[in-house]
Specification:
Nucleotidyltransferase, domain 5, alpha/beta, 16 helices, 6-stranded mixed sheet, 3 domains, two-stranded antiparallel ribbon, 412 residues
Amino acid sequence: MRFLPYNPEQAYLLPPSVKDVLGENHLCFFIHRVVEQLDLSGLEEDYVEEGRGAYAPALMVKVWLYAYALGMTSSHRLEERVREDLAFRYLAGGAEPDYWTLNDFRRRHRRALNDVFTQVVEGARRLGMGKLGHVAIDTTRVGANASRHRVDSVKKLRAERAKIRRQIRHWQQACDARDPNETPGTQVAAQHVQALEERLEEIPRRLQVLKKTGLKQVSRTDPDSRFLKQGRGFTLGYTVAMAVTEDHLIVEQRVGQESSDNELLLPVVDGAMERCGEWPERVSGDSGLYSDENLVGLETRGIDGYVPDPYEARELNLGRGGRRRRWRKPEHQRMVQKLRRPPGQAVYRRRKAIIEPVFGVLKQQRDLRRFRMRGLAKVAVEVTLAATAFNLTRMWRTALLQKTQVEERLSG
């Protein structure tokens, strides 16, 4: 026979063992083993005994972590893959949760999923990863799920109010000028007037929201998002800050609305300490994280900081020697003097090699350029899942490397 047997209608399309097809070193099996060792009691406590049975929290965690490891953030797309993809079907145990259930799980369990991230960091450190000798901290902008054209400002709201009032007068005049016998036309005009009056009643509420935020512009689609400056102008979104170790393990992540990055440095350092149980020895960051208060905070915590001010960062990037300057504070003087010596410059240059590849993977390969959900609390869950999945892939590759080295030694 020239061809192998082919029968799409055969009784069993799945192999007796999934590992025979995917291989025992596949990422889905690693995620399965890690999640089985986690304490998911925080997730289980969010469910009640009454009502219809829910999908197991372990199932949902495994499916979402594997999805984020592949750069899949859409619940609609994930629903399809759970039905069609062999690795997803294995992690789901044959279950088929719909997109609403998948998205609701991601939306509801912010604190519990944050605890999962902490447990994964602790597990990685037990494997020898995540040493806090040098921790690089940086921020990046991630777009919101909102149009930058649907924003409210005082000027726009006043113009919209004036326009609605003109339209109301127009339809009222049209209604008065019509023949009283033309009942359908009169009803249509009245409906237009009613709809415009409802829109007019919303203007004071939107003005009140704008005044509470103290901002010049607020998105109508995602009020928590902010216009933030980046390399090519301004983007409507959020600021994501992360702390990464030399072996590219994310030990802290958080989302903020701050227009100034330097407000996030100390909170990220404190968060890394809470998750790892110890302070980093050295912390590096770019000039966007610089402030005199941050230098004082790092020294108070006993951390060797490498955070230049904008002028000194420009000199370092151009490779020029710094000129004599006046120091605002002793902490500033010590920082500049440290960065002007070759050892300090070497530590600062190492920062890019530590954290920039992590942001590159998350944004380019894992599609973390724009959030799926809206609101600060919900987008924080997305960042938590993305960071947890990234750490799991790092652990998986490290475990494969160690296994290969052991096999080579045994064979040699």
